[in-house]
Amino acid sequence: MSPRQSRPSAGHAAVEIPEPEKRRAILHAAVRVFAERGYHGCRIADVAREARVAYGLVYHYFQNKDELLESVFAEQWTILIAALRAIDEGPGSAAEKLTGVCGFIIDVYKTAPSAVRVLMLEVTRTPNALRAGSTPQTFATAVGIVADVIRRGQEGGELRRDLEPVLAAAAVLGALEMTLTGLVMGLVRPAAPPEEEIDRVKEQLAAMVLAGLRAPGARDP
Amino acid sequence: MSPRQSRPSAGHAAVEIPEPEKRRAILHAAVRVFAERGYHGCRIADVAREARVAYGLVYHYFQNKDELLESVFAEQWTILIAALRAIDEGPGSAAEKLTGVCGFIIDVYKTAPSAVRVLMLEVTRTPNALRAGSTPQTFATAVGIVADVIRRGQEGGELRRDLEPVLAAAAVLGALEMTLTGLVMGLVRPAAPPEEEIDRVKEQLAAMVLAGLRAPGARDP
Amino acid sequence: MSPRQSRPSAGHAAVEIPEPEKRRAILHAAVRVFAERGYHGCRIADVAREARVAYGLVYHYFQNKDELLESVFAEQWTILIAALRAIDEGPGSAAEKLTGVCGFIIDVYKTAPSAVRVLMLEVTRTPNALRAGSTPQTFATAVGIVADVIRRGQEGGELRRDLEPVLAAAAVLGALEMTLTGLVMGLVRPAAPPEEEIDRVKEQLAAMVLAGLRAPGARDP
Amino acid sequence: MSPRQSRPSAGHAAVEIPEPEKRRAILHAAVRVFAERGYHGCRIADVAREARVAYGLVYHYFQNKDELLESVFAEQWTILIAALRAIDEGPGSAAEKLTGVCGFIIDVYKTAPSAVRVLMLEVTRTPNALRAGSTPQTFATAVGIVADVIRRGQEGGELRRDLEPVLAAAAVLGALEMTLTGLVMGLVRPAAPPEEEIDRVKEQLAAMVLAGLRAPGARDP
DNA sequence: AATGAATGAGCTTTCATTCAT
DNA sequence: CATGAATGAAAGCTCATTCAT
Fold it and tell me: Which residues are paired to D214 by β-bridges?
C-alpha cells in the first residue's frame, strides 16, 4: 500500500525514484528532536510539527517510532563512518589523520550540531531493542577505525606504544564530545564570533590530543 | 502532613533527624533506574520496584517525578564536587591532582557505575525545566574546579600554556566519561579480571591526560 | 479494640462516658471541610489537618470516610429537625412559626454557616450510599415539618389554600438557602456590619415568604 | 496540532466551521455526568462512556478535566443569561416577566434537568479555581438581571418597595431550584403524569413568587 | 489513645498507532 | 500522498485505608 520499508533508497536499475521531499523533512526533523530530547522524550507529534507535516504522514513513511529513529541512527552513522574510513584510508601521518578526525567532527558540528549529539550521546541511552543491528556495532566500528589509526601510528613509531588503542580512541572521541557539550551549554564562552571560536576549539583539541598520544621523540608536524 | 520537601538533610545542632531509611532506598533506586533509562524512560513504578517499596511511598517522600530526579542530581553532584574540591585544595602538583581526579571518578565508577553515568550523561539530555537550579551550574562548577587545577598548573609552569583551561577541563572529563562508556559497552574487553582491568584503564587514562597537558620541558613525576 | 461504632453517645445508666474531645474536634472539622468542598472533594487529610489531629486518629474514631460524613449528616439533621419540631409544636400562628423557621436557620447560619450548607446543599449531591438511612428521609422530614405548618395554616384560613404545602415548603427552604448562598458569595453586599446585615436579611426574607403564602384576607401580625 | 482551545465557536463571516459532532457529544455528556455527580465525583471515563466516545478523545478536544467542566459551565450560563436577558428586555409587566422567568427555567428543566442542576447547584460547590472567570460573575449576572426586573417593578409601583431587589432575586431563584430538587428527589409525588405535574408546579411557583413580591394595592393579572 | 509511614487501587493525562476521508 | 480525528494502553498522581510503634 506504499513505502514503509527501510528504503534501500536506490532501485537497481533505470529510473531512480528520488526520495520524497517530505520523507527527508521528517528525517531531518527527527534528528533534531531526537538529539534534543532523547529516545523516550521524543514524541511523534514533535517530529511532525518540527517537519511541518501532518501527524499521520510520519506513519506513511515509517512503520513506527522505532523504525523512524533507527533510520536516523543508521543515516548518521553511515555518514560518520564513511568519513572516518576516508580519513583512515587516505594519505598522511597518524597525527594528520587524528587532526582530521577532530576537524571533521567539529565541522559537522558547525553545520548540524544535533547530528553529532545523536551519535555521541544516544549511544548508551537508547533502548537496545532499537539499536539492534545498528548502534553497538556501528559505534564499535567508529571507535575501531580511530583505534586503527592509532595502532598504525604506534607501529610506525609515531605514537606512544604504552596505550591500548581502543581505550585511547574512546578517550579522544569523548574529549571531542564533551568539549562540544561545553560549547552547547555555554561553558566555553565565545571570545570570538562563533565561527572562529569553533575553529579555535578545533586547534586546541587537536593539539591536546596529539600531545597526549605522540611518542616522546616524535617531531611536531 | 509529611516530608515532601527538598530535605536540606542537615540540621544545625544537637538532634540530627536521621533520613528515613526508605527515602534513602528510593533515592538509591532512582539513581540506578535513572542511569539505566534516562529521564523520560525512567518510570516511577520501576524506581518503586527497584527500591522494594510501595508505589505510593515515592510520592510520600517526593512531590513528583521531577523533584525525585532533581534530588538524585543534586545528591550526586554534591558528592562529586566535594571530592573535586578536596583534591583541588589538597597538596600536590597539578599533575598529581589531575591523576587524582581521574582516579577518583574511576574508583567511584567501580563501586557505583550508575552514579557516574547520571552525572556525566544526563547533563545534556535532561529537560531544562528539571535541571533548573541544579545541573548547569553544578556541571559548570565541576568543570570549573578542574579548570582551576589546570590554570594553576599553567601558572606554575607545570602545564602547557596554550590551552584554554575550561576547554581542556571539559576534554579531560569527556575522555573519562567515554572511556567508561566504552567499558560499559564492552568495547574494551577485559583482558584481565574486572578489578585489575579498571585499574589499568585508570593508569592509561592518567598517562594520556598528563601527556596531553604537560608543558614540554616538565619532568615525569 | 476501641470505639468506632456510630456512638449512641449516651450509655443507658450511671456513668456517662463523655465524648472524647478530639472526636468532637474531628467532627467539627469535618462539617467545615465537607461544607466547603462537598463529599468527593473532602479529603481525610483535610479533616485531620483542620482538626489539628493526626491522620490516623480519624480512623480510630470512625470506621471510614463514609461513616464520618454520615455522622456529620446525622448530627446536623438531628439538630435542625429537633428545632423545626420545637417550632412546629410550640405555640403561635402559622405566620409566626414560618418567621421562626426563617429566623432559626439564619441564626444558625450566623454562628455556623457551614452547618447550614451541609444540610441544604449536600442533599442532592452526596452519593446515595452515604445518605442511606439519613438524608433523603431526613430532608423529607424537614420539608415535611414545614409543610405541616403550612397545611395547618391553610386549614385555619391563615394561609392561601391553592398551594401544595410540600411544594411551598420546599420553595421556602430554597429561598432561604439561596439567599444565604448569595450572602456567602458577596452578591448581597453588607450595607451594614455583618451582624445587622444578617438580621435585615432575616426580616426581608420572612416578609417575602409570608406575603407569598398568606391568604388574601389575613391581617399582618 | 489540533483544537483544544476554548472554542470561541463563531467566526465573523463566510465559512462557519461547524463544531465537531463529537465535541458536542462530549459536552452534552459532561453536562449530564457533572449534574449527576458534581465536580469531584465526575470522572472523565464516565463522560467518555456517556458520550460513546473513546477515552482519549476527551483530551483531544479539551486540555483537561477543568477546561471541560469550565466549558460546560460557560455554555449553560450563556444560554440561561441570554434567555433571562430576552425576558428582561421584552415587553410586559414585571409580574409577567417574573412568571416568564419561572416558566423558562421550569421548561428547560422539563427537557434538560441536568442543565438546570449544573447551573443552580454547582455554583457554590465547584472549586474556585475552576469557576475563575466564569461562574461567580455569571451567577451574579443572572441574579442581577432578575433583580433588575424586580427593581423596575418596584419603581413602577407594581412590586413592593421594602425588599432589596438582589436579595429578592436570589430568593426567587432559590425557591425555583429547591422546588425542582424536591421534584427530583420525589418529595413532591406526581399526582398527575409528569408533564402536567410540572406545569402545575410552574403555576404554583409563579403564584407564590408574585404574591410574595407584589405591592399590596396591585391587581392580579 | 495517638501518630504518621506505608500500601495500592483508581483516576487523570499522555502518546503511539490506526483509520476514514 | 496527505490529513488529523479517533482509539486505548500505559504511565503519573491522589488518597482512602492499614499498620507498626
Answer: D159
Same domain, D57 and D134: no
**Residue B12: pLDDT band with limits 50, 70, 90:** low
Q: Which of D26, D42, D62 is the last residue of a domain?
A: D62
User: Which residues in 53-72 of chain C line strand E, with CB less than 7 A from it?
Assistant: 53-57, 59-60
Coil vs helix vs strand at D1:
coil
Residue B152 and residue B158: Cα distance in Å, rounded? 9
Residues B27 and B101 in one domain: no
Q: Which residues of chain D does C121 touch, with a Cβ-Cβ cutoff of 8 Å?
A: 121, 124-125
Residue pair C178/D174 in contact (Cβ under 8 Å)? The answer is yes
Check whether C5 has a pLDDT greater than 70.
no
C192 touches chain D (CB under 8 A): no
* A160 C-beta neighbours (distance < 10 Å), count: 20
In angstroms, how far is E7 C1' from B67 CA? 21
Chunk chain D into consecutive blocks of 10 residues (it has 221) and report each block's average pLDDT, rounded to whole numbers: 56 63 94 85 93 96 92 87 94 95 89 78 62 68 94 95 93 90 76 79 92 74 47
Contacts with A, B 36-55, CB within 8 Å:
37-41
Does the C-beta of A55 come within 7 A of strand E? yes
Smallest CA–CA distance, residue C101 to chain D, in Å, is 15
Q: Strand E within 7 Å of which CB atoms in B 1-20?
A: 2-3, 20
Residue in D with minimal Cα distance to A48: D1
Widest CA span of chain D, in angstroms? 65
Sign for the pseudo-dihedral over CA of C37, C43, C47, C52: negative
Residue (of A60, A66, A30) closest to A45 by Cα position: A30
Model-level pTM? 0.84
Interval B180-190 mean pLDDT: 77
Domain that holds residue B29: 17-62
Q: Does D136 touch chain C (CB under 8 A)?
A: yes
Gap from B32 CA to F20 C1', in Å? 30
CATH number at residue A96: 1.10.357.10
Q: Crossing angle of helices D113-125/C21-41, nearest 10°?
A: 140
Q: Which residue of D has its CA nearest to C211?
A: D212
Distance in Å from E8's C1' to B20's CA comes to 21
**Chain-centroid distance, C-alpha D33:** 16
Residues A71 and A96 in one domain: yes
Structural domains in chain D (count): 2
Determine the pLDDT at residue C131.
54
- Whether residues C50 and C118 share a domain: the answer is no
Per-residue model confidence as pLDDT tens digits over C118-160? 777 676 666 665 555 556 677 888 899 999 999 999 999 999 9
pLDDT at D124: 60
For residues A201 and A118, membership in a common domain is answered with yes
Closest CA to D163 of C162, B97, C208, C21: C208
Q: At what angle do helices C165-185 and D165-185 cross, to 10 degrees?
A: 130
What pLDDT does residue A148 have? 95
A20 touches strand F (CB under 7 A): yes
- Among A27, A42, A62, the domain-final residue is A62
Are A133 and A199 within one domain? Answer: yes
Residues of D in contact with A49 (CB under 8 A): 1
Q: Taking CB atoms and an 8 Å cutoff, what residues of chain B touch A188?
A: 164, 166-167, 170
Examine the domain organization and report whether D38 and D141 are in the same domain.
no
Q: Looking at the structure, do residues B32 and B115 belong to the same domain, yes or no?
A: no
Cβ separation B172–A175 shorter than 8 A: yes
